[in-house]
């Protein structure tokens, strides 16, 4: 799963890239740079709409579950600074990330590695 989310170079290169590039407010996982470059933000009313030239490319975008998995992998890899940056970006993005993480934590059985990772990650969240 780490290979899918962070590319073949692994978590370490993704963390280096995260902290070496200037923040534009939106984190981009490795492999999704072209998709992010094609997105255009349009103001419409109070919210923002994202349009992509080819609707088939929407399947390639990172889902909330992908971002929760990425956070779990960062937690298991001991990448505290990257985890904090990801959590901050997700808090700015909206409540879906934390809702899904809480729901998954409630569903995993006690004593499972996944529940331990999720609970540790949720403890890092500033409310």
Explained architecture:
- With 127 residues, this protein is mainly α.
- The protein has helices at 2-6, 11-20, 33-38, 64-76, 80-93, 96-107, 113-123, and strands at 40-44, 47-51.
- It is 56% helix and 8% strand.
- The longest helix is centred in the last third of the chain and has 14 residues, at 80-93.
- Residues 40-45 and 47-60 have low confidence and may be disordered.
Keywords:
about 130 residues; mainly alpha; two-stranded antiparallel sheet; 7 helices; about 55% helix
Provide the succession of SSEs.
Answer: HHHEEHHHH
What structural category do the secondary elements indicate? mainly alpha
Radius of gyration: 15 Å
The beta-strand count equals: 2
Can you give the helix content as a percent range? Answer: 55-70%
Main sheet makeup: 2 strands, antiparallel
Question: In percent, how much strand structure appears in the residues?
Answer: 5-15%
Largest sheet: spatial strand order: 1-2
Measure the end-to-end span.
29 Å
Q: What is the averaged pLDDT score?
A: 74
Q: Uncertain regions: pLDDT < 50 for 5+ in a row? A: 40-45, 47-60
Q: Tell me, briefly, the overall form.
A: globular
Work out the count of structural domains.
2
Question: What is the strand and helix layout of this fold?
Answer:
Elements (H helix, E strand, L loop, with lengths): L1 H5 L4 H10 L12 H6 L1 E5 L2 E5 L12 H13 L3 H14 L2 H12 L5 H11 L4
Helix pairs in contact: 4-5, 4-6, 4-7, 6-7
Structure summarized in a few sentences:
With 127 residues, the protein is mostly helical.
């Amino acid at each position: 799963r780490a290979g899918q989310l962070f590319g073949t170079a692994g978590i370490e290169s993704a963390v280096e890239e995260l902290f070496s590039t200037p923040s534009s407010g939106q984190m981009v996982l490795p492999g999704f740079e072209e998709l992010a470059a094609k997105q255009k933000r349009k103001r419409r009313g109070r919210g923002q709409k994202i349009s992509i030239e080819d609707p088939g490319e929407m399947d390639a975008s990172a889902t909330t579950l992908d971002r929760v998995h990425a956070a779990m992998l960062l937690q298991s890899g001991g990448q505290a600074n990257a985890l904090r940056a990801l959590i901050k970006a997700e808090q700015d993005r909206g409540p879906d990330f934390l809702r899904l993480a809480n729901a998954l934590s409630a569903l995993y059985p006690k004593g499972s590695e996944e529940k331990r990772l999720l609970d540790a990650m949720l403890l890092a969240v500033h409310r």
